[in-house]
Amino acid sequence: AGGRGVGGWLCRMNAAFLFCGSWRDQTFKPENAMTDAISFKLNDKPVRLEVDGDRPLLWVLRTDLGLTGAKLGCGEGYCGCCTVLVDKTATRSCLLKVSDVRGKEVRTIEGLAADGKLHPVQKAFIEHDALQCGFCIPGQVLHAVSLLNKNPHPTREEIIRGMNNNFCRCGAHTRIIDAIQSAAVEMKGGR
Questions:
Q1: Rounded to whole angstroms, how far apart are CA atoms 178 and 182?
Q2: How far apart are CA 165 and CA 184, in angstroms?
Q3: Which of 5, 65, 79, 122 could anchor a disulfide with 73, C-beta 3.0 to 4.6 Å?
């Protein structure tokens, strides 16, 4: 199918497209890649990589840097499983080229806790049992952090609207909303 027609569509729909079609062939073969020096701040530490600047940030984080908190869900930017913070804003890393973070600050779930203490959003997710399988949780937590950075005192409706594009197949949505409300109170203006 080579990524075209029904075969490529089915591969993407099944989240197995990493092993299907021309997208993988063109993007990840070393002989097709042009490397570029890309520097950015990752979880408060400077990073400099020699990589193909067109590679998705998600794959650079997972394969090159060993940070596997961001997950591949849909691969299309809809589900939120790949969410990271770029300059404190929730960003879908499956859609973002690594070259687009040059000179920016990137934070993954692995870098959210500080000085051995969980971030208030992480604590609230645990306290409210706002997780089941855990697959979507890194993206949910980081999106919630971004939301609270922009709006430190959201109403329940604003949380629902703000988190609307983060999918949880387990159905923990109401507990996630409760956790975000709780974190907002603890943060008292964001962190």
A1: 6
A2: 20
A3: 79
